[in-house]
Amino acid sequence: MLIVIARSRRRRSNLKNETYKNMRWSKYFIPTLKEVPSEAEAVSHRLMIRSGLIRKLASGAYTYLPLGLRVLQKIQNIIREEMNKQGAIELFMPSMQPVELWHESGRFKDLGEDLITYKDRHNRVIVFGPTHEEVITDLVRNHINSYKQLPVTFYQIQTKFRDEVRPRFGVIRSREFIMKDAYSFDRDWKGLDKSYQKMYEAYENIFKRCGLKAIAVEADSGVMGGDVSHEFMVVSDSGEDLLAHCASCGYAGSLAVAEISAQAHKRTSAQEKQKPLQEIDTPGVTTIEKVGHLLKVKPENMVKTLIYASDEKPVAVLIRGDHEANETKIKKFLKCQKLEMANEDVIRKITGGPMGFSGPVGLKETRVIADSSIKGMVNFITGANKKDKHYINTNIDRDFKASEWADLRMITDKDLCPKCNKSIKIEHAIEMGHVFKLGLKYSKAMKAEFVDESGKLKPIVMGCYGIGVNRIMATAIEIHNDNKGIIWPLAIAPFQVLIIPINYKEESVKKATDAIYEELNKAGIETLLDDRDESAGIKFNDAELIGIPFSIVIGDRGLKKGKLEIKIRATGEILEVKKEEIKDKILALLSACHCEERSDEAI
Predict the structure, then answer these.
(1) DSSP for 569-582?
(2) Tens of pLDDT along 86-136?
(3) 3-state SS assignment for residue 37
(4) SS3 of residue 335 by DSSP
(5) DSSP state for residue 272 in the 8-state scheme
(6) Is the pLDDT of residue 567 over 80?
(7) Gap between the Cα atoms of 502 and 36, Å rounded
(8) Is 180 helix (H, G, I), strand (E, B) or coil?
């Protein structure tokens, strides 16, 4: 028995020494690059490749190298801590999902070509899960059937798959990605409100701890379903999404749902006298810009007529010339599942004319809805529903009628905040997470029901909550970098400290370096030792590239004075510290960073 214990202790000791050994650069795997990768568009993509965090396998698919994996694991740990704090329960669901579940929920057609599927040897269609609403609903309907089992929230961290048309920006938009998705199940809508708020607060904490200032914006639920959702966005020039944000009152909304202030619809042109409708020649001119240039008229004095196919029924949408139609708003107003621009045959049937010359005058038995911005417009230009012809001096009610009015356009930076009527700003942003009040969409379709106190059978009320784990990693780099490389927030940095010995082969330097390395590791400080036989310049450049928060420089000259240098990556500040005080100083710096993070969370 004593022999077994002794062997066990020796094995643990060897493992510990092996851990120290593996945290030496020469024994680790950090393939840094000097060159900027030609295929990388975003800052994060370039730096993730150059710093040895990832390598591309195929379009939209990446290998996470050891440094990148450490960052991912830290992000996942933060997510787990915050989700567990809110009472969520972790599980792990299959990526391979029977297609029957997707037919049951009705979403198979909605996702279309984005779904990645295959047929197994039994000729069954399997979906590689882009999300797991169907799977979790199937699990719950088979195991939760009483109000006594509710509420409950499950979550997982899982690889997802989506056949993106154009993967971009490295791991920000890829075909294979890592997500944390959570699903809440409640007895009623009040319960959902509470579950939603818990997840909302968890998300705020997660992003703060990861060093990101996320803005929660009102959002469109899309194919996920539900009436209420919020996206958590981080402002970044590399962002593919756009958000409208008001600095005065804090209102924020994605461009898909941002409302237009009523103030935007007031026009002085309503005082003008109506002029006779007149048809004019516009040969080969089909766009707002070209028509305006030809007729010397500003786009705001024109109205474009867009013909859409809505659930197979055509509809005409009128939008002011200087605005863009918002198809999310249009779909919501029409309460339709499918909306797309009509083809030329449909346009000719409705308008009597070719594509590019559509107008509201003389449309045949077509539903006409108009954006509120054209109310009060007088003597404006429209298409004439004839080849190479437009109308000038078109007027509402006299020349055509719009039976319905609504907010159908994209907000612009010339608009006012819909809440306080102050100025707003349109900014590029990266979506980090999305929370949805799904309601009964899946529970009704898939019969996920419970028996309440009175013995009645009721559908479970659901919520859904997703976070892009690898997006957090990339976005942190987008926000925290300089012209030398990454500047990691301490909480998600691959290591806390990097030791850089100058001339490691020299006995005095090696002895001091190894002693400090072991001392920091024993103190629980995550430390990487750059023991490579490289020049000081290469080591310093790589240190700034990979962005570890604190570097300790150990050289013979400093050792003779009994002092070492600590370099702070975020500020570039260099501190001279006595050799024997190095551990305490690092601990103090780490503690100060943690205090700043907690202070930010309190704010």
Answers:
(1) TTT--EEEEEGGGH
(2) 999 999 999 999 999 999 999 998 887 889 999 999 999 999 999 999 999
(3) coil
(4) coil
(5) S
(6) yes
(7) 27
(8) strand
**Two structure tokens written together for 521:** 């590791």
- Dihedral-angle region of residue 503 (phi above 0 means left; psi in -120 to 50 means alpha; beta otherwise): left
Q: From residue 167, give the alpha-carbon distance in Å to each of 79, 175, 177, 375.
A: 25, 7, 11, 41
Contact in structure between 390 and 420 (CB atoms under 8 Å) = no
- pLDDT for 379-389, tens place per residue? 999 999 999 99
Residue type, 191: G
For residue 381 the two structure tokens come to 């230009």
Listed in order, strand segments (DSSP E) in 282-379 are 303-310, 313-320, 339-341, 367-371
Distance (Å, whole) CA 25 – CA 497: 13
Averaged over 449-457, what is the pLDDT? 96
Q: Are 128 and 99 in contact (CB under 8 A)?
A: no
pLDDT digits over 197-236, tens only? 999 999 999 999 999 999 998 877 665 555 678 999 999 9
Torsion angle of the four alpha carbons 307, 311, 312, 315, in this order, in degrees rounded to the nearest 10: -30
State the DSSP code for 36: P
Q: What angle do CA 332, 333, 335 make, to 5 degrees?
A: 60
Residue 291 backbone dihedrals phi, psi, to 5 degrees: -65, -45
Residue 162 burial (CB < 10 Å; 0-12/13-18/19+)? buried
Q: Taking the CA of residue 186 as centre, how many other CA atoms within 13 Å lie in the half-sphere pointing to its CB?
A: 18
Instruction: Say if CB 567 and CB 550 are below 8 A apart.
Output: yes
CA-wise closest residue to 515 among 569, 554, 486: 554
Domains and CATH numbers, the chain: 43-259+425-477 (3.30.930.10), 263-406 (3.90.960.10), 495-602 (3.40.50.800)
HEC readout, 127-161: EECCCCHHHHHHHHHHHCCEHHHCCEEEEEEEEEE
**What is the distance between the alpha carbons of residues 64 and 48, in angstroms, rounded to a whole number?**
10
How far is residue 308's CA from residue 316's CA, in Å, rounded to a whole number?
Answer: 6
**Burial class of residue 406 (count of CB atoms within 10 Å of its CB; 0-12, 13-18, 19+):** middle
CA distance 450 to 187: 8
The answer to whether 393 touches 280, Cβ cutoff 8 Å, is no
533 exposed, middle or buried (CB, 10 Å; 0-12, 13-18, 19+)?
Answer: exposed
Strands 527-529, 497-501: pairing kind: parallel
Joined together, the tokens standing for residue 270 give 């309503």
